[in-house]
Design goal:
- It contains 6 helices and 6 strands.
- Strands 1, 2, 3, 4, 5 and 6 form a 6-stranded antiparallel sheet that branches.
- Helix 2 packs across helix 3.
- It is globular.
Length: about 180
């Protein structure tokens, strides 16, 4: 019987995969969100988070922030490319069900036109503050968001590549439905 050393066994075990919100793409998106907000509004997206964080640390801080933060790509029917933990809990979706979802599905059908108009207005002016609207979670439960900030995301070349939203104020419009929130991953 051949014995391997503990060091050799440790090398044989691959490191665990990072959670999806700490993938290289998600870290880059978090950086675009943070920098885009600063450029659009002249202030940090997350109060109290120092500017000297590494990209990984900034992505971690953004993910665990109490402020709801989402972003979608610049496609014809934009799909979500980012949702922090506060957004995942609010919409009661795990990362894999939220990221990739057409962003229009975060609002009920009756609200989608006004949502689209606000996003178009924000696209034209680069950034918009004070937006409010009604959204729905994965089970169809309605909630109202208030004082949301919407801004344009830019790629490394400075070209528009999507939009982002952040808000800290929301409330339910109906009583809770049965079921617990799904896991985040």
């Amino acid at each position: 019987m051949t014995r391997t050393s503990p060091a050799a066994e440790a090398r044989a075990i691959p490191p665990p995969e990072p959670p999806p919100w700490l993938s290289q793409d998600a870290i880059a998106t978090a950086g675009r969100l943070i920098e885009g907000h600063r450029l659009a509004f002249g202030r940090p997206l997350l109060a109290g988070v120092s500017a000297g964080l590494s990209p990984l640390q900034a992505a971690q801080e953004l993910f665990v922030a109490a402020t709801v933060v989402l972003a979608h790509d610049g496609g014809a029917d934009p799909r979500l490319i980012y949702a922090n933990r506060a957004a995942l809990v609010l919409w009661r979706r795990p990362w894999g069900a939220m990221v990739g979802l057409p962003s229009r599905l975060t609002a009920e059908p009756a609200e989608r036109q006004s949502r689209a108009l606000a996003l178009e207005r924000a696209r034209r002016v680069e950034a918009l503050e004070g937006y409010g609207g009604i959204r729905i979670d994965s089970g169809g439960r309605r909630f109202r968001i208030e004082n949301a900030r919407l801004w344009t995301l830019r790629d490394r070349g400075g070209q528009p590549c999507g939009q982002a939203a952040a808000f800290g104020r929301w409330w339910w419009l109906e009583p809770p439905r049965s079921g617990s929130p799904p896991p985040l991953a």
